Amino acid sequence: MSDSNDIIAYQGYPGAYSHLSCTRVFPEMKAHACESFVDAMFMVDNGEAKLAMIPLENSTAGRVEEIYRLMPKTQLHIIGEHFEPVNHCLLGLPGTRIEDLKTVSSHPQALAQCDGNIKALGITPIAALDTAGSASELAESRQPGHAVIASSLAAELYGLDILRENFQDKNGNTTRFIILTKDGHVPDLDSEERFLTTIMFTVRNLPAALYKALGGFATNGINMVKLESYMASDTMQVSSFHLDVEGHPHDQSMQYALQELHFFAKSVRIIGTYPAHPFRYSKQVSIED
């Protein structure tokens, strides 16, 4: 059995885009498939895996809301982020010709993102639970005239041919992953490095509490790149917030901003400071393009 320090957990079938991200960022580690996000995150929380690769948001589908509700139930820390462009591939059994295809299966979201190309080929889409699972099923069933939409890694794992790459109708579909670990640490402050800090907090039940809590970031020149709210209470009276800012806790302006946040917030937890991924500052394809 592999040492837990060599294991990175992810949710999905082998060959899923989460699995692909694991192999890109940590090729030396053993990627372990889990049925749910809970299983993947608690593998790390319980010491059965060193890291977890968890999708937080997608440029087309939006946020993965479940993750925001799960994070407070763990003691995990974010140590990095990864942006994975989604390259849907049309896969078939070895020797299959595109003109012989009659049906194609995949996750409903993948089918929707490839709808124009599916219609152009005149094949019938069939919804399935996930992309890589569809590839596994085709490899077992050997169904002639059937194709799947999945990753290039799924083609490799299940012995399928890539009939067409970049099968999605529009490019620019990208998923942001966070990399979680149990033993977090704050990296050294480096003026040459751009850092993100992720904070979870709840505000006091006072007028304009959120406005006041966030005011310190504005007055100290700290850029907020993401703010998400979610209900973390069964009473539906208390909102919790997930905040990403460009900054490092050892920077003085960040310390001033955090002081104000602590003053107006009911609870504050910094769940990670980590280098910003270069994708953030590269020329990105607009979703509307």
Description:
It contains nine helices and 15 strands. It has helices at residues 17-25, 37-45, 65-70, 108-113, 115-121, 131-141, 152-158, 209-219, 252-264, and strands at 7-11, 30-34, 51-58, 62-63, 77-85, 89-92, 103-106, 124-127, 146-150, 161-164, 174-181, 195-203, 223-231, 239-246, 265-275. It starts with 6 loop residues before the first strand and ends in a 14-residue tail after the last strand. Strand 1 (7-11), helix 1 and strand 2 form a beta-alpha-beta unit. It is 27% helix and 33% strand. By secondary structure, it is α/β, with parallel strands linked by helices. It is elongated. Mean pLDDT is 92; it is low at 285-289. The strands form three sheets. Strands 1, 2, 3, 4, 5 and 11 form a six-stranded mixed beta sheet that branches. A five-stranded mixed beta sheet has the order 8-7-9-6-10, sandwiched between helices. It has a four-stranded antiparallel beta sheet with strand order 13-14-12-15.
Descriptive keywords:
alpha/beta, disordered C terminus, 6-stranded mixed sheet, 5-stranded mixed sheet, elongated, 289 residues, 9 helices
Give the SSE layout.
Blueprint: E1 7-11, H1 17-25, E2 30-34, H2 37-45, E3 51-58, E4 62-63, H3 65-70, E5 77-85, E6 89-92, E7 103-106, H4 108-113, H5 115-121, E8 124-127, H6 131-141, E9 146-150, H7 152-158, E10 161-164, E11 174-181, E12 195-203, H8 209-219, E13 223-231, E14 239-246, H9 252-264, E15 265-275
Parallel strand pairs: 1-2, 1-3, 7-8, 7-9
Antiparallel strand pairs: 3-4, 3-11, 5-11, 6-9, 6-10, 12-14, 12-15, 13-14
